[in-house]
Design goal:
The protein has 6 helices and 6 strands. It is of the alpha+beta class. The protein folds into 2 domains: 96 residues, 2-Layer Sandwich (Alpha-Beta Plaits), CATH 3.30.70; 32 residues, no CATH class. The strands form 2 sheets. Strands 2-3-1-4 form a 4-stranded antiparallel sheet, with no helix packed on it. A two-stranded antiparallel ribbon has the order 5-6.
């Protein structure tokens, strides 16, 4: 499951937000990984718009596993003042953004195979459709 979310950091506090994320607490990093947050990235625009991306088996379950950790409670309390809506813990105010396109999914659906970086071809192997039907 791929998840994208957005939030908003107060523009005047963006430097501090970046500084805190330059060296996230090791126990927070471990908690995220143990909760199932994979390939997790944050992107911060010049106006304070924050975009997050992660991959997980089930977002609600991964989020719930984080919610019960002591380190997450401490981290959210530390980070709350940096966000535009500081009345709510930051991780509870994330707005999930709908995914409308994914290149890999579309390539697969169209039967296009990427043999190597920068190359793609239409798969003409007749067993591909059979195997796809069996899945």
């Amino acid at each position: 499951m791929r998840v994208c979310f957005r939030s908003s950091v107060q523009p005047e506090l963006m430097a501090e937000y970046k500084q805190r994320h330059a060296a996230v607490w090791p126990e927070m990093l471990s908690a995220l990984k143990n909760a199932g947050w994979n390939n997790y990235s944050l992107f911060l625009a010049s106006d304070g718009q924050l975009i997050g991306y992660l991959e997980c088996e089930n977002y609600e379950a991964a989020r719930a596993r984080m919610a019960v950790t002591e380190v997450n409670a401490r981290w959210q309390a530390e980070m709350a003042t940096l966000f535009a809506d500081s009345d709510v813990p930051p991780d509870q105010a994330f707005e999930i953004v709908e995914e409308v396109f994914n290149l890999e999914d579309q390539l697969d659906a169209a039967g296009i195979v990427a043999d190597a970086p920068g190359t793609a071809r239409i798969d003409t192997d007749p067993t591909r459709e059979y195997l796809k039907e069996q899945a």
